[in-house]
Amino acid sequence: MRTTKLAAVVATLLWLPATGIAKPAQPSTVNQWNQALLEAISTTGTGPTVASRALAIAHTCMFDAWAAYDQTARGTQFGSHLRRPRAEHTLDNKRAAVSHAAYRAALDLFPSEKPRFDALLRKSGQRPDLSNGDVTKPAGIANVACGEVLEVRHRDGSNQLGDRGGAPYSDYTGYQPVNSETHVFDPSRWQPLRVPTYDGRSTYVQKFLTPQWGWVQPFALRPYRSYGLQAPPRYGSAEYEAEAREIVEISARLTEKQKVIAEYWANGPHSVTPPGHWNMFAQVVSKRVRRGIDGDVKLFFALNNALMDAGIFAWRSKVELDYVRPITAIRTLYAGKTIRAWAGFGRGTQEIAGHTWSPYQPAYAISPPFAECVSGHSTFSAAAAQVLRTYTGSDRFEYSAVVPAGSSLVEPGLVPARDVKLHWATFSEAADEAGFSRRYGGIHFSIGDLEGRRVGRVIGKQAWQKARSHFGGRQGG
To answer: Where do the Vanadium-dependent haloperoxidase NapH1-like second helical-bundle domain residues begin and end (predicted)?
Structure first.
């Protein structure tokens, strides 16, 4: 029931065009494969780190296959060595190469979703041809180009194949939390919690999600220390108390719109995740600017490599700093005290015992299974907004989403009381709201949000610059 409702809400939130915007054109080949990948991410419950890498790999495969049919583009693995004669640079060949590359990558990344990908390949007028290595044909180009991308990525530090021990994407670094679910030994450090499963049938103790991720091979990311990340305050300092107090105060004065914002951007379990959310925005941009398959391939290649790099940086900082989440800090600081805050489903703001404080989140996602600083939402969103700004040549977005009455997963049937329309005039505004939404939701402190935004913008610029170097002579979007 929950999955069905959530899927319906997400579809409603993300696909309503802004007032005054013309009906978008039919999705391109790239858009269709992007959407299939987002559906696979949601269906399989893939987390944000793995999702960002998967999208980057698939769109790099598409780019490298497409590059063989462009006069000046250079693939990431073979450069210009696969380039076909100009007479073959037809729309049909580009579409075929992109579809075969997307298919091969998708099967590698989401093997359980093969029926979905088979259906889309057939819809595109192609049939599976994975053994074709003839580089005079689109399928052969795709297999050779994508095969090399996958070979490199299988050794990129993500542990996709589980060949470094354990299950696919499992940790091989030996990370262990300082705190347990029952005892806080260090109030400056992350604490795993015991939470309900997504289906509500049982409980489990959180494990830090992919703590090895900060050491995954990036696209354009520079050395971690070069970003000058500001360290968050430690327990016992006035700054630590102030940041916790700020979250309690936000909780106490939550408006209905702020609750909507917190949930709209949450992108928790079995969603498209924050990277996927920005891919859905990119689909909207693609349909508006209508630069064809050439523009779409470039857009999603740059965007998703920026998102992958944002995830790598954010998770490196999460492990390096291992910083406490608000739920642990607030419950520790205010144990034995009474505070005024959001009191739970339908109860509004009340006086509550400090050790019972909870973020504005559903129970199964009460606090993420990884440390606080920096905010993944903020880093992902700022990087994505930077790419979209550069691609379009403007910060203008002018996009809206309508959140239906009663659609809340935290207070279902109650919030919002009426439909709420969210609108973003610019990509920057959307990214900033995504970052602040985690403070409304009680998930992040201000430093995790603001530092994530700052570094994310830099990461977006760096990824665009490197992507642009692969575009060749026509380097615009």
So the answer is: 299-461
